[in-house]
Amino acid sequence: MNTRKIGLSIIATCWLMVTYGQTAMDSLSIANSVLPHFKNWSIQEVVPGGRIDAIRQLDEHTIALATRGTQKGKLYISDDQGQHWRFLSKPTENDITCIAETGDKHEFYILTSQAEVYRTLDGGQSWKLLKQLTTNKNTENYAAAYAIMYTAHGTLLVTDTDSEGGHIYRSADKGSTWTDLGAVSKNALYRLEKVGNGIVVNGWDGTVYKSIDDGMTWNRLEKLTDAALFATEYLGMAHLLQADQDGYIYSSSNLGYTWKKCSQLDGAADDFVNIGYGAAYYGTYTSEKNVYLTLNYGRSWWNLGALPTVEGDWLDHGIRVETTDSVITLSATNKGFVLRASFAKDFLHHTLQQVQGAQKEISAKHKIPLHQATVGMVSHVKEINEPEDILIHNKFAYIPCRDGNNVAIIDYRNPDNPVLAHSLRDRDILDAFSVAIKDHYLYVLSMTNCRISTYDISDPYHPVKLSAITVGGEGSFLEHYQSNYTRLRKIWIDGDYAYVTHSSESKVYILDLRHPAKPAIVSSFHTGDGAFAALTKGDVLYLAGYGPGSSLITVDIRDKRHPVITDRVYDPVLLKGTCALAIDGNHLFVVAYNANTFWSLDISDPLRPQVRSHIGDTDMQGPGRIAIWKKMAFVLNSSNHSVAIIDISKPDNPSLARYFQDPLLRRVYGIAIDGDMLLLASREANNFIVLDLKNTGL
């Protein structure tokens, strides 16, 4: 295999050349100082004269690729994240169009151009033909099938290219038996893509379809174009891209529910390759066959030119490989090459924040260095995937993860060395958003499918599921989210009752937990202004109704069957996006995400809160989640990757004291206090961090 290097060297410290500020970089600066780093590929000719259209990550280090064309039917493997490759086997004489990974490098699947599914259980040394799912019914001489996926629940899905309507085939027993779900579209189907709370598939009728029940049923999302959709990529943080044969690119910022056309580039779409943090490559297979780059979730694109391999080559398929501190992209080409790029996460964080103009660097004199207080950290790109919150119980942290559709359970009994004790996964946990604990029972709230699941966590390393119930339904379309998928939001437990907020219904459900393994709905009521965070003090329930909520709502809950709203504090500007609550003594503290404000209210009369003050700060962007330590309130600022420390020793007049800000806090979303320990979890940094507050000087 031939190997050569092109472009400029990437070094982990190159972000130091980037200055901070809220003003985005201009195009000339981006072209001169940023784009060269994204063209710094190492190039290997893995399959001389062949075509690589299938490449997948089998485990942390192992990557497999498969071939079409003149060298068809071959598999190659890398044991070092794509640095070196070797021939593995030739399981078929047909083109291999897709690979389905299981997370175990010994077991994976391939799909051929004749819709044949093969399985290996020994890492690709030997193969078994499971089934040919269909004969080729495509009238344009394309392959019979292009996509196979192994879902998080062990289900196999395959699409076909039937010109009369693309079918989806489903197997729940590792390919032993299959169900033809019938024609999902009006034309051929193409790629399957995992997207947070479900799976999407695109096709040649220009329409996107989605399943949120492990591929059993599919719903039409939106028809984007009359041209065939080919390229599809989920960028994380609810962002999804699609591109068509006419070169149009479409983006969704809400998991595919609504779309907008954002660009038209020269050439027909082939594939995207996610880099991370809003950056992605995009390749075309007609015209000049250029590679394009976005640095802002698809809003704008830069032309990187043709591939630096051989004339007429194009980017056929690629993947992103993520480690604790770096991102690797592997882009396979039509002429048998693999282009590999490696990026330090620090570089991506600082560079892309500068390009996007989204972050404000906080003055050093106002910051406490994160490393000064950090005593331990655990990072896991799969199991701590977009954490939403943290709940602590007996030195274990329970972290609901939205994109992971799981609850990560972290053992931090040794705070210097926290470990992942268990990852709780279940079909009822989709879009995990909130958790609560009563005694040794864990309650997990699933936002999208309106489920509350109950687990016995007597042994946190081995939780046992006891039950699951449905709370509410789909609700109404919310303008703020351009959808109704934001359903169940938060669960709060006090005594024998749980309070569950439902966003798209603007309702609160009260659950009876006196039989904790079998929660029962006692009552529900409308809030009139959204439903998000919930917090109780005695017989009073306080509610914050983010999206579209702009108010604090006070509820008398002495009669659980007939709760009564007694008061509202409403401000459509300064309380816009109310999302978090905390109580200290006779004061209630509230933050508003969209208004960037922190409020103090006196609740000496619990049913009639009195506003005392509210504060804002240019460095406090996207505040959400509050934790209190001594006379300090710690407020997450996910938009500015920071934690604000607010002095509440004078609770009527809080004042900003200091901040933590660090790339390790990228999209920080989870927070809890345990004694003198501050626990944090970050969505895009995929981590759980333990800080010792005694080391901060506060």
TrEMBL record:
A Pfam family reported for this protein in Swiss-Prot or TrEMBL: LVIVD
Protein name in UniProt: Uncharacterized protein
